[in-house]
Amino acid sequence: MKVLVTAGPTREALDPVRYLTNRSSGKMGYALAQAFAEAGHETLLVSGPTELDVPSGVDLLPVESALEMFDAVRRHLFRMEAAVFCAAVADYRPAKASAQKMKKGDDSITLEFVKNPDILGSARKEFGFQGTLVGFAAETQNLETYARAKLLRKGCDLIIGNDVSKAGIGFDSDRNELLLVYPDHSESLPEDEKHHLAPRLVREIERLEATRKQS
Ligand code: PMT
């Protein structure tokens, strides 16, 4: 398969020295990209800034902001058979990024934010993607309900939910515990190393893509 994986956080600039970001080390997305490449798939990793090494056999397309990630996905998605959106994309960006460093002054300041495009949510309608579409859902409560709502709203074949309120898993950690949410059922994957969970997810996505191709 040709597979696109998004990973890591996005950075939304306030000025040349400051930005807003989301918590994400990139570990889950990089583990997935590595597992796809090791399974013989042509893998493009669209990644926000991380400290991680690019897994061998994976093509990296580095981006910084949500708008850059949106543009990178828009340019490459059409030639993919599967896409997995693991990035923690900032939902909003500052309405105006200052060209010069903002100087200290008032005791409090108010910033205006505007909504970033929903990259995963654009895959089906805006980009016309017909391949296997997989998203993640990072939740702190009602994991299955919220993940299922995202599955329907974003037109996914599978949403991989993780409860990021639990200590030792999710953000930054080497470990995770996942809930696979399909249109007709859900399945839990117990806590394990992200590098052990990733090949399991790859097999699942291979199965979804084989089923899609047959239909
Ligand atoms: O990077 P790690 O430290 O290993 O942590 C892994 C993780 C917790 C970041 C990862 O497992 C995860 O859950 N990623 C998705 C985080 C998230 O932002 O979820 P969300 O529920 O806000 O978004 C739902 C889906 O829409 C995700 O697939 C997200 O990539 C996508 N999205 C969201 C907003 C947006 N503007 N564009 C998007 O494509």
UniProtKB/TrEMBL annotation:
DNA/pantothenate metabolism flavoprotein C-terminal domain: residues covered: 2-207
Superkingdom to which the source organism belongs: Bacteria
Q: Name one GO biological process term.
A: coenzyme A biosynthetic process
InterPro entries for this protein: CoaB-like_sf (IPR035929), DNA/pantothenate-metab_flavo_C (IPR007085)
A molecular function (GO) term: catalytic activity
Name the UniProt record assigns to this protein: Phosphopantothenoylcysteine decarboxylase
Q: What is the lineage of its organism?
A: Bacteria, Pseudomonadati, Verrucomicrobiota, Verrucomicrobiia, Verrucomicrobiales
